[in-house]
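G., before I forget:
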Amino acid sequence: MNAMTLQVVSPVPTDIDIANSIQPQHISAIARKLNLNPNHYDLYGKYKAKVLLPVIDELKGQKDGFYVVVGGITPTPLGEGKSTTTVGLCQALGAFLDKKVVTTLRQPSQGPTFGIKGGAAGGGYSQVIPMDEFNLHLTGDIHAITAANNLLAAAIDTRMFHESTQSDSALFNRLCPPNKQGNRIFNDVMYTRLKKLGIHKKFPEDLTPEEVKRFVRLDVDPDTITWRRVMDVNDRFLRKITVGQGVDERGMVRETGFDISVASEIMAVLALTDSLSDMRARLGKMVIGNSKSGEPVSADDLGLGGALSVLMKDAINPTLMQTLEGTPVFVHAGPFANIAHGNSSIVADKIALKLVGPGGFVVTEAGFGCDIGVEKFMNIKCRYSGLRPQCVVIVATVRALKMHGGGPAVAAGKPLDRAYVSENVGLVEAGCANLARHVEIVKSYGVNVVVAVNRFSSDTDAEIAAVRAAALAAGAYEAVVCSHFAHGGKGAVKQGGVDTRSRYLICAKDINALLIIIVENNPKKIVQSDVTNTNMHHHNFLMRFYQIDLGVVVQKACENATEAFKFLYPLDASIKDKIEAIARSYGASGVEYSEQAEKKIKMYSKQGFAGLPICMAKTQYSFSDNPAAKGAPSGFVLPIRDVRASIGAGFIYPLVGSMSTMPGLPTRPCFYDIDLDVTNGKVKGLS
Amino acid sequence: MNAMTLQVVSPVPTDIDIANSIQPQHISAIARKLNLNPNHYDLYGKYKAKVLLPVIDELKGQKDGFYVVVGGITPTPLGEGKSTTTVGLCQALGAFLDKKVVTTLRQPSQGPTFGIKGGAAGGGYSQVIPMDEFNLHLTGDIHAITAANNLLAAAIDTRMFHESTQSDSALFNRLCPPNKQGNRIFNDVMYTRLKKLGIHKKFPEDLTPEEVKRFVRLDVDPDTITWRRVMDVNDRFLRKITVGQGVDERGMVRETGFDISVASEIMAVLALTDSLSDMRARLGKMVIGNSKSGEPVSADDLGLGGALSVLMKDAINPTLMQTLEGTPVFVHAGPFANIAHGNSSIVADKIALKLVGPGGFVVTEAGFGCDIGVEKFMNIKCRYSGLRPQCVVIVATVRALKMHGGGPAVAAGKPLDRAYVSENVGLVEAGCANLARHVEIVKSYGVNVVVAVNRFSSDTDAEIAAVRAAALAAGAYEAVVCSHFAHGGKGAVKQGGVDTRSRYLICAKDINALLIIIVENNPKKIVQSDVTNTNMHHHNFLMRFYQIDLGVVVQKACENATEAFKFLYPLDASIKDKIEAIARSYGASGVEYSEQAEKKIKMYSKQGFAGLPICMAKTQYSFSDNPAAKGAPSGFVLPIRDVRASIGAGFIYPLVGSMSTMPGLPTRPCFYDIDLDVTNGKVKGLS
């Protein structure tokens, strides 16, 4: 092997620079690897395609591959590398272990890309590319959600306005105007409302004045409206606003606000649906508030379920992209993990599982720690999809475990305390209580757990050994190191850039007996080597080794999966029983409801929504409601401040504390660094 | 010819049903007709493609085709069929006269699609398809504009907030934080601000405290902010709102509002730019308001010009679609005609003119009547593009001319008065004063005028003759009938559906000697016929004949174009002189300025913006400011209520009366009828 083909770049470049340095394959080549032909997808440029929903029907007879979900321990505000691990694992499975693999990821919100967070395509040499397209617009799904969400919002205010200014008969004449033949007719969506009202008449002229009144007056109680407008921008000044102050709106002002678009219930619908007819039904059923008599008012009552479905008809098709190593990725849906279930779409997973087939892998990610993310993955997503995972990967870092063991606070944008960059096995061991509880939570579903320790360069072997011991003691199937510390990057260590086009890298035949193979180029020229060979010693090679190690372990965990899957709670339990089951899984001794929460639970039960699963809106920074309570707190009483519902998406969400649904911009947002290279149209400064 | 191949459908189906009944060609086939190869475009599904900007450079050496713009007389609220005429003309030129032709159209706003208006893809058998994709999302350009516009809005409020809560040095530390090497640096966009401030220093540490203050404090005067948020939804309750009422915003409330997205200045920038570097510059120069000392504050002052360009980088590529007859269409940009220039993009026209080449045609449309639409096309769009049209088509209807001659008011949704459906040559003749002035306005630019009378079934030959006589007397090059009355549809007349795949139709060799040719199928089997042949007598055949007639006339007008092009005003005239030149073209005797308008003219002049062209915001329903003043009013004084500016886009816009920039929804919006056929994903009820 010619060592000169190693493009050693030190320090490791920014994510966008790495992403831009790789020429992605045409997405039709990626599709071909999955046996998709051009009728199965629509291209969106050269590097993105929407795989079309009817593929599900075509593959109905096909068996599913293995289903793996990546969760995490309770994170620090810096994040523990779940996405990067997910992408790295798939690169290992697909590009080096020759397995069929699809990564299914959430589409990131565009707002934070320009704020603090930057992009969300993985990192370093484990990324989804083109990274700028992943982070910006993608194929327009979030824009479609914004449009649909806000059309519904506009319809609510306008309908209230029209009801306030018109008589029953004027409203009726306008809603059911005579057609050219002079006949009035109801259309489909009106029959939906009539049926709900118990009016079984076919012709408008047959309605009694009382029935006309009930039909035309939604009589929305403004104080009960839960539907807010959305925008995919971090705009804190829209959190609380007053609308309707124009003179033409005649004083019908109302306090409301904007959420970030991914917090829209329509995003949750997109993530949980699996067909056009199901999506149409869910969108129509979404409840926007109550009538003054306490009846839920739905999008279909407003005549809007069909139009919302039309706006969302392309969004239901998952977007195919690729990793830096050319393995396929589905990017689809990204419900806000704070108030929704934080998992990518069911549609993408279903299609992917058929495409990879038996022996193949679909690896997805569940937002936040396993207490919230994996819990919702199991009890909401898997419940609706009917799918069952064979393996859960829990990503842990020594840094986070030290924090849980009593280390100083960790904050974004501030230098790390010394405790985090020098050996302290005691702190790690103490913090492993957090990891252990996450392992136990996941094990309770009857699924194998693999712990992946995302190793940083300052982590010592003794610290790593402590984590592994704790993981195994807690019942993990296996615990391995996975690392992308190449981009943590101490300046003193020589770093290696991986030219993925030339595919030189390590291949593990077995965990214990590592055989390193260097595949130099296409056509493949295989050069055996070993880990002591000079050029093997840089971090990317180690990273790759670890990824492959993880891949082999995950494969074993899947092949040895149990068949003992069980949910945390049955759907027919009461709302309170379900909330309490989840709270106990956190370590709580009980639950305390505010007056408001009690009232809402009664209301939703009376309205017939008690049978829905529960989507807890809780901080991700602790098992408890108190983000400062690190480690594995127990015996606390979980306070439920309020209870809300996404009826169309299909869950009740209790609020544990207050959840921000609209982030802000910092004093110096990322956008200062983002610019266009006008000579070639490439994006600069995105990280 | 087998008469059975004529799929006669009576009454004429809805637009979406006609559009859905035709299987569009794969867009790569349309691209091939223009000699575009797959490197020249990005596919967006099977029926849309974005043609990539570098095509302009590649075609630099190529000569342009003929450039035709379609305008109208002063319209009724029902519209006079400009878009349908534009599409029909292109179908005739391309599919029947075998000319290379590209139609360049505005992308319609999605908001009105769900409100009153319905779709905007032409109508009947002259449409852009797929009609639902044309009207919904398209390739995401308007969504990109919404995102960029609102990111800038969020940045304004957040910056004011941060300036109000932080000291100069805290702001400076955050804006120019030390990097990993401990050095502070300015980035590119900061140098832009420093240059504007006259500070020519390279390093942050060299700034004096006074310079730091000037650098970090934009000191925006909230009362001067002209930048509003936008949404592509008809949401009247957002016209006037109060933002910042959340507790975390500490009382920094402010009154503002939302416009419909197409009213964003960013849309006008998109329409007027012709390269990435020009777009980057314009976006950075956009002025959002003044500092308290009266200096304009720009997007680049906020550090945002680069990020906005990144959000818009794909939107700059025009979208290729097709007509029902498979002729190519560019859909690109749709600036709000009320407060911007209402013309599709310069980029699309430039690319199209090269692609059709000498002897080919690019036909575009200018919103509203010629007094506003064509005037802005000439003085703003052509001024920035450097392109010159060879022919202007003015679309007129007998209906509108009767209204201008003194007929009763015409309103949407109300039955037409008898005057409009029975012969009244006198009313028509009187109304032709309106047509004559539009012809004169256009002639003054030194361009040939063709008048196209969009004939309805109730129009009589005598009425049509009167229009033709008036048009020629006013100096029109020619006046012909063009008709799509097939979809006006009197029930008694048998209607014909055109199966465009089988291409049987009429071909005119000459205006005077008409030869009708029936081209039955592919491969072409030509059957001569004549107009008296039985199956020729339905309306679509007549419509086609008229379209071809118009095509032949337009071709002659282009071939005989004069070289005497001149603008209405020179750019170096004062703002008032320019406004007055435009007002005189309307027939005004003078202009009257409000105190506010005087103040703003002084301010913009002082700020150095007096050299920009003028974009008049005036009602389209009259030459004057009074929409009720039909015909050709003269001697009136045009009142200028206020003067605003879109500095990045590059025009000053005086407001003649108040302009609504956010439409509302009616009591029964179109969305009631719009639904998805969940069995096949097709859209129903869009019209």
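The two ends of chain B are 33 Å apart (CA to CA). The CA atoms of residues 155 and 302 of chain B lie 7 Å apart.

More on Monday.
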